[in-house]
Amino acid sequence: MDLNVKVTKLKDISTITRDYRKVRSNPKFLLNQLMKTNWESLKDMTNVEDMEQFWTSELNKCLDITAPWKKRKKKKKKFRLPMEVQSEIEKQKELQKKHLNNVKNGKPDAEIERIFKKQRNYTNSLIKKAVREKAGRNISKESTVKQIWDGINDIIKPERNAKNFLKIETKEGIIEDPLQVAEEFNTFFKEKIEKLEANINKNPNIDPLSELKKKMKHSNLKFSLRTVKEKEVLKILNALKGKKSYGLDGIISEILKIGAEVLAIPLTWIINASITTGKFPEDWKISKIIPLFKKGNRRTTKNYRPVALLSVAGMILEKVVAMQIEEFFESNDLFGSFQFGFRRGKSTVSELLTLFDILLDAKQDKKEILLIMYDLSSAFDLADHKILIAKLKVYGFDSKALKWVESYLENRKQFVTVAGEMSKTININTGVPQGSRLSPLLFICLMADLDLWTRDSLITNFADDTQSVIVKNEKAEAVEIAKNEANSVIGFFENNNFVNNADKAAILYNSGGKGDSITIEGIGGEKITSTDSEKLLGLHINSSFEWNTHIEKLVIELKKRMGLLKRIKQRVPKEKLIIIAEAIFKSKIRYGIAAYLIPIFEREEVKTGKLSPHAKELQVVQNSMVRVIQGLKRANHVNMKKERDKLKMLSVNQMAVYHTVMEAYNITNKNASDQLQKKLNIHEGKHSERSAANNELYVPEKPRKKCTGFSYIGPKLYNMIPKNIKEAKTTDDFKTKLKGWIWKNIH
Hints:
Largest sheet: 5 strands, mixed
Radius of gyration: 30 Å
Shape: globular
Distance between the termini: 51 Å
Structural class: alpha+beta
Number of strands: 18
C-alpha cells in the first residue's frame, strides 16, 4: 500500500429528498391533511388527464406540508485510524524515506529495503484489520437485518464508502459528469433496441397470427374491461410494499399505503374513468430509468440494463387491468401449458420438474434426446405493439379493451437519471416497460401461441428462456426434426419481432441413456455443437441429465459463503448470524432441491441414515456452517443433529423431503404443472378408489436409479404424510404440519 499515492478528492453529493419522519411517526398527520383536499372535484371531470394532474398536484401539496423536500449532503465517511496504527505508519514513512534516499544517491541498501518492505506489509495488515473492525461495529443485538446487511457490505467492501461517481467510456473518452452519463445511457438504451429491431429477419410471407387464428376460429370468447369498486382498490393499496423508489410524480408507495383509507376513493374514480374512456394518463407512461449494472466492466454501457420506475398510482391502475386479463386467459386456458413465467402457482422450479420429467422418461427408454435452449435478447423492449393488439383481438378483446391497451402502449417516454441528474425525455415506440405490473402479462400473451408453431417437440418456457425437447428412436431422425423444430421456434421469434441470441443458444444430447456430443448445422443459419453441461434457470444440467456439475459448483459457492460467515461471526450476534445464514446459505441449497436431490425417506433408509453421495457432500458443508454459528471446531466431536436441532434447522435431507412434498402439493392444489398434475392424479387398478379417498397420488413403476426423478419420488413422499396434513385448509397450515411431521420422521 503506497501511502504517497494521490487520491482524487470526492465531491460531496447533495440530494434533495422528502422528510417523511413526521408522517411515519404520526400517520394521522398525513390523513388529516388529505381529508382537507376537495377530492370530490374529480367527479366533475371527464378528462382522465385532468384527473391525474389534479391527483398528483393535490397529493404533492399535502406532502409539501407533511413531508417537505430537504437538501441533504452525503459526505464521505471519515475514519481515524487507531494511534498504534498511526505510529506504525510513521515508522514505515521513515524507512521509506531512508530507502528512497539510498536509491537516489546510488547506494541502495538491501537490508534497509528488506526492513522497509517488512514494515510496509505489517502496516498494511494493521490498516486492513482496523478498517474492517470499524466497519463492523454498527452490528449489534439491536441491529435490524437491513443494518446487518449494510454492515456485511462494509466489512466485505470497505471501499464502497469512498465510491466515486459513475464513469463511462465513450469513443471521445471517459465521461463522469452525471448529466452526460445519463444522456449517454439514454441514447445507448434506445439505439440498442433500434439496432436489434433493424436486424430482425422477418418473413413477409408468414402471418404471425395464422396459427392462432386457426385455433380461435370457432371461439366465441369476449373480453371487456370492467370498472372496479373502492374496496378492490383499497385492498391493492393496503398490500403495497413500503418502497422508497418513485416515478416522475415523486410519490412513494408508502404514502399511498398510509393514506389508503382516504385515497382509495379518488383513485378508484381515476381508474374507472381510464377504463371507461380507454385512455391511460400520459404522465403515467413516462419511465424514470435507472441503469442497473449486470456484470463485466463497470465503464461499459452494454453491461447495464434499464430498470423503469413508474408512478405508483399508474401501476395500481395497471394491476387492476392485469388482474382482469389474467383471469380471462387462465379461466379459458388461453395460456400454453408450456408457459411457467409470470403465472400464479407456477415457478422456475415447476418448469424444471416438468422438463426433467420428459427427459428422464426418455432416458429410461434409452431414446435419442436433444434439448435445445434459446435465449431472447431484450425481449420486453422488442415487444411489437401492432402484433400484440392483433393477437388480443383474435383472443376476443372488445374495441374498448383494445383501445385501452393501445393507449397504454403508445406514446411512451423515458429519461435516465444518474446521481440526481436527469437526461432529456425521449419517445419509445416499441416494447413494454420493465418494472411495470402489466408488462410481464402482455409479454406472455404475445408468446402464448408458440406451441402452435411446433409439431414434433415439447416446449417449456419461462419469460425469455425457451427450451425444445426432441425425443426419437433414431439419431438421424432426431437431428432432422431438431433442425425443423428449432427453425420453427426461431421463425416464431423473428416474425413476432423478437431476436434469438445465437451466442447463448445451446444443445444437450443424450443417446441411449448416456450423455454424448453432436454438431447440428442449419439451426437459425448457425452450426451448433452440443456441450456437456449448461446452466438453465439457475441449475447446471449435464447431458447425462444428472447433477454432478451442479453439486460441484454449488459446493464451491457455499464454501465462499461460509468464508463470509467466518469473517463476520465475531461481530454479529448469534441470533442475527442464523438469519444471515438462512438468507445467504440455506436459500442457495433450497433452490431447485426437489429437482436435483433424491432424499432418503423409506423406513429402512432412514434407519441406516445412508445418504446419497450428493446429499452427503452438501450435508458436510451444512455441518461446517452449523459449526461456524455454534463456535465449534472440527476437533469438537459433537452430534450434529443435536446442534441443528438447537438452531431449529432442517438437515439437507429434510429440506429435500420438505420441498419435494411442497412441489407435489403445488402441482395437485395450485396447478403448478399441467403435465405433472395429469400424471400424479391418475388412479389405476383395484386400489384406485381407496387411493383417491386417502388423497393419494399415483406412483409409477420405479425407474432405473439414474432415471429416478420427481414424478416417482414426489408422489411416493406425498402419500407417506398423514391424511390430516393433506386435508389442511390453508397452505400455511399445510407447511406448519408438514415441518412438524418431518422433524419427527425424517433425519
